[in-house]
Hints:
mainly alpha; 0% strand; disordered N terminus
Amino acid sequence: MLIDAQQAFSKTSDDGSSDAVIRGAQKGDQAAFAQLYREHHKRVYALCLRLLADKDYAEDVTQEVFVQLWHKITQFKGQSKFTTWLHSVTSNIAISYLRQHKNWLQKVVSIEGAGMDESSVALCKGLNGLDKLIVRLPERARMVFVLHAIEGYRHEEIATMLSMAVGSSKSQYHRARQLLMEWYDNE
């Protein structure tokens, strides 16, 4: 699966899902839900991989997103585009998953977990360009960078989502940009 930094929820020109498909899924139509899955699973996986920097976690969270979507699709009221709503659900589940699955020792020893090392990135097929560098970023810097630069969240929103100060969000974003520029120059 090719993951491209340009593949973001906010960058789609068409919402992809017709109102009829969404309504069908809301009524429990499995074929309609399968259609939603086919239309959106690659974007959900791409966002999960960027946020979590771990292929296995990204696959687990992608699966969890669609399980939760099956249970919560009736909460979608059409006040925004479906992709915007799905993006929010995906981000929240990925962040929650990361908080729940951190190793307790990592929490004690290191305030911040690193992203993938270069050998892990090489094994992760489908990563290209910027995505190869993003998954190497330290956890908080990676999450802030993805949410702000790629997904378009404001620092105030990110600070709320990640339980940090707005200044910390801006600082982590700056740190991520610096690391990405340094790594890009060395490639």
